[in-house]
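As the work plan foresaw, our protein records have gained a structure token line. A representative record is set out beneath this paragraph:
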Amino acid sequence: MDDHYFFSTYIFKPNKNKVKKIETESSEVRKVVASIKFIKSQYRHIIITQRRLDLFMSSIATVMQLKGKAIETGPFVEYIVYSTNHIDALLRLSVILTNQLINKNEGIDLTLLFQNEGDKPVMEKEVYKKCFDLRIINEELQSKLFNLYNERNKVIHRYIITDIRTEDIFKIALSYEKIYGEIDKLMLEIERKQIKEQVGSWSKTGKNGLTESEKEILYTKIRDKHGKLPKEI
């Protein structure tokens, strides 16, 4: 296809006792081969961007799962780390969706979704500023985010050299949960606005909940994000 050649081989050792297994596997191979898509060069950026958004969203789902486990088992340092990631991700997404509303398109800034080796990072504080400049968050919420950023760094980097106590870690975790609630409401408003105005990545959703098939796909993506672990999370 367009000077590109695809070659697929399925190898098995003939064995009467494994006929059913071979039939099942060869059927799966055919499904996989049939699902291969060749993307022309002019459309590859669009596909790559959508793929990154999909990975970004499934990673958010993974973090939500890890937050739940951290609450169950009690290491609130873990909860703070995952909450930091979760809030940062939601704010990045809010910037993308808000810019879509402003520009009346489905444009996505990949620098907010993905950081490859060697890429210049878009840091948390820069994301806070972008949100403030776009009026996604007000001055009070921005101040809360900066304060939590400083307190989080004491937990992660300066537990030994400051007067922070272990009991303070629990209080910081609670503060993260409260601020997450505020940001989640802001995100919901932006999503509803996209659906109402029929603009942006969320404009075509307009539905609540996932089907069983969609849930299974999401669980598969979450397992993939975890990678190979000695036991399932």
Observations:
- The CA atoms of residues 53 and 113 lie 7 Å apart.
- The chain has a mean pLDDT of 89.
- Residues 41-73 form the longest helix (33 residues).
- The radius of gyration is 22 Å.
